[in-house]
Amino acid sequence: METVYQHFRPSERAFIDTATGWVTSAENQYSPYLTPFIDPRQAYILKTLVAQTPDFLLEEAEWAKQHERRRYLIRPDYYEVSEADFELSLLSIRYPSKFSTLTHPHILGALMNVGMKREVFGDILNIDQAWQIVVEKEVSNYVILNLTKIGAINVQLSEFDSSEALSVPNDYEDRFVTVSSMRLDTVIAGVYNISRQKVKTMIESGLVKVNWQQVENATFECSENDMLSVRKHGRILIIDQVGKSKKDKLKLNVKVK
Predict the structure, then answer these.
(1) What is the Cα–Cα distance from 245 to 76, expressed in whole angstroms?
(2) Which of 69, 79, 129, 199 could anchor a disulfide with 97, C-beta 3.0 to 4.6 Å?
(3) Which distant-in-sequence residues (6+ apart) come within 8 Å of 103 by Cβ?
(4) Confidence band, pLDDT 50/70/90 cuts, at residue 2
(5) H helices of 179-226, where?
(6) Cα 61 to Cα 162: distance, rounded to the nearest angstrom
């Protein structure tokens, strides 16, 4: 386990232990194991663990591959996967769209207010005034019955087939940037072409998240597959390092939204 820990942050050890338990369960029973919804960084850790496990593969639902938060199936190589194995439910939100407006934070807050833990629902999909939520099949009826208001707006949820899922456009821009280090302030400054001092102030003011967790330390070391969220600027997904420049700076492949 120590060899796995050394590739990740100390703060990620708890998830590594949890994910290792999932893989071990699949191995011991030699049968598929379905995870809760996890974010891309957690998925990266899980993929690393499964890659070290002979005769096991990691699968995801075909229709949800563009989503950020997904469920994964750890399966023996003999097992044939079907869509039903992922136990996903697609819920559409009906509301008086002519007179009211929904937002992602309001929907997220409403889900948490009816007792939903973050690991039981995935992406909140949106195109124009249409909104959908991906949840675990097991909790779909509970959500339909209990989520009747979002803020002051009356809503009604109904289950749709996965073929009717909103195809949210991928509006990330691929970009290559050169930075002197993987420090959080340095990466953000390099991507958005703003001063490190300004970025440092933003970080210390609580305006920056790494993998959905607020980080207030400008010297925080970023890694591949980290998602950086910078309020009023957007998101940065670090794909990988692609070498060094002639001045010995790091070349990063990132996606920017």
Answers:
(1) 43
(2) 129
(3) none
(4) low
(5) 184-192, 196-204
(6) 10
